[in-house]
Amino acid sequence: MNSLTNKNIILGVSGSISAYKAPDIVRRLQDLGAQVKVILTEGGAKFITELSLQSISKNKVHYNLWDEDAELSMGHIELAKWTDAILIAPASANTIANIALGKANDLLSSVILASNAALLIAPAMNLKMYQSHALQDNLLTLISRHAIIIKPESGEQACGDIGIGRLVEPLSIAKQVAKQFISTKLTGKKVLITLGATIEAIDPVRFISNHSSGKMGMALINACIEMGASVICIYGNITTTLNEKSNNMPIISAQQMYTKVMNNIAGQDIFIACAAVSDFSVKNTKNQKIKKDGKNLILELIPNKDILADVCKLGKKPICMGFAAETQNTLKNAQKKLKNKGCDVIILNDVSNTDFGSNVDENEVVFLSQNLNKKIAKNSKKKVAKKILAIFIKEYL
Ligand code: CTP
């Protein structure tokens, strides 16, 4: 399945009568899962309004290279970095010539020069203009620079002529954009991931927590997003950067994480419990700072609910992957967790070795399921995440 889930697309709209189809192109790209931002050229603005493109794309339309406010918020370099592909539809003869010459005289041409993203061009113009040597030479130049030309169709043209030059239908254009991205068995799947450390308050200034950094969970999120999954990230305390393409939901305590997971788990295909959830919370959290009085202080802790075990008990449960952080009898304990929690996969993490596990950049794990016991050798968490998902896809998707 070709999909644009997690993909950012810039749609350049230039001066052609078929610019009226641009809102439909935006829709079709969105239907495939893309976020779309439109750049309107001066010519394009003669045929379609900024307002209609803004309403459909739900993003500000960009058109002016010299707009100081735009440069402050999202200038041409930011747009170039943001996008995964640039589609020009309709592409006029003038815009095509501009790009072939490598000019940077308007916003669209400047963004194209500043970007390494795939470039797709859907020409639309009168047949004589399309067949002209100049236009065809420009297209060949762009093809030699790896641009993809979405060849126009034949038919009756706005000017009354009959022949090649009509803009391809929006759905077909959107599908050609999607084809530029590799699709995997995770493409279009819904994944909910918990990560980071939960925090249990003792009083307004003190708490119980753990050393989890969230790095392993984040590596899994990044890999899932790269493979086209749509991800909900429910995170506690983390020391790593969030991926802006996931739906990020912060929590503090284990109870909050439990509620957030249960409220969002319906319809998810895969649940990955990577969070280091506190097994206990403080029975009587104090509203005021506890003062020392020279005597021992006894905190009463009450058990928290097990999120992973409860998700595994759901009637329509997703495929569940948990982590087992162990310091002794690691394999035995992890196998026990696999069975007791009722999950499909447990990733065993030996946290007695400080070289890997929590709060470091590398990890070494064992992928455990009912039929499988596969060691994934020490590597960066990014590479380990990819290996975990590769085995997971092979076994379950
Ligand atoms: N987990 C969870 N909810 C909890 C506790 C743990 O969802 N209240 C999940 C973790 O995210 C992890 C797995 O269960 O995927 C195992 O967590 P771990 O801390 O290794 O084990 P515990 O179940 O807490 O058991 P113990 O601390 O006794 O080893």
Automatic annotation (TrEMBL):
Keywords: Decarboxylase, Flavoprotein, FMN, Ligase, Lyase, Magnesium, Metal-binding, Multifunctional enzyme. CTP binds at residues 279, 289, 323, 337, 341. Binds 1 FMN per subunit. The keyword ATP-binding does not apply. GO terms for cellular component: phosphopantothenoylcysteine decarboxylase complex. GO terms for molecular function: FMN binding; metal ion binding; phosphopantothenate--cysteine ligase activity; phosphopantothenoylcysteine decarboxylase activity. Residues 186-391 form the DNA/pantothenate metabolism flavoprotein C-terminal domain. InterPro entries: CoaB-like_sf, CoaBC, DNA/pantothenate-metab_flavo_C, Flavin_trans-like, Flavoprotein. Its cofactor is Mg(2+); FMN. Pathway: Cofactor biosynthesis; coenzyme A biosynthesis; CoA from (R)-pantothenate: step 2/5; Cofactor biosynthesis; coenzyme A biosynthesis; CoA from (R)-pantothenate: step 3/5. It catalyses: N-[(R)-4-phosphopantothenoyl]-L-cysteine + H(+) = (R)-4'-phosphopantetheine + CO2; (R)-4'-phosphopantothenate + L-cysteine + CTP = N-[(R)-4-phosphopantothenoyl]-L-cysteine + CMP + diphosphate + H(+). GO terms for biological process: coenzyme A biosynthetic process; pantothenate catabolic process. The active site is at 159 (proton donor). The keyword Ligase applies. Catalyzes two sequential steps in the biosynthesis of coenzyme A. In the first step cysteine is conjugated to 4'-phosphopantothenate to form 4-phosphopantothenoylcysteine. In the second step the latter compound is decarboxylated to form 4'-phosphopantotheine. Catalyzes two steps in the biosynthesis of coenzyme A. In the first step cysteine is conjugated to 4'-phosphopantothenate to form 4-phosphopantothenoylcysteine, in the latter compound is decarboxylated to form 4'-phosphopantotheine. NCBIfam families: coaBC_dfp. PANTHER family: HOMO-OLIGOMERIC FLAVIN CONTAINING CYS DECARBOXYLASE FAMILY, PHOSPHOPANTOTHENOYLCYSTEINE DECARBOXYLASE. This is Coenzyme A biosynthesis bifunctional protein CoaBC. It comes from Candidatus Ruthia endofausta. The gene is coaBC.
